[in-house]
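Here is one chain, start to finish.
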Amino acid sequence: MKKAAVVAFAFGTPDTILSNLRIARIALQKARKFSIPIYTQLDIRIKEPGIKVKYTDEEPGNPPPTLRIARGAAKWAKEQDLRELWIVAAKPHLKRCLRNLKYACREAGISPKVGICGRIDEYSEDEWYCPDSTQARVRSKKDWCLREWILNHMPMFIYKRVAS
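Its structure:
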């Protein structure tokens, strides 16, 4: 495999909720299979000898927005000269994660191949919502959909001001 890495985006908080445990497991499986590093945030805990993990800068208890994670991943990918990035995210969050990571890579002046880890499809969209999350927006499809629709349809020049 070309020089590659996994970029994992949490779906709610804390790291012990089911959605984040799934994301961590999928990211770890991909990293293990190809011996590649992971870029993620504190709510995705990877504890595996031999797997390098780079955590984005954040204050504990204050998860960073998706765009900030994507920008951190793009900057890291540029520093590491990565050619492929594999996204792991909850299915309802995937479209925005993909858009943000591609945008952040363009901002950073890099053009890696950006793919999606296929194991995400093992779970239906409805299986990702977690009533135990401390973030209300990921507890149910109803809580998530309106906000997400607005963020996905917002022009990027506005979104990057709102979501940074």
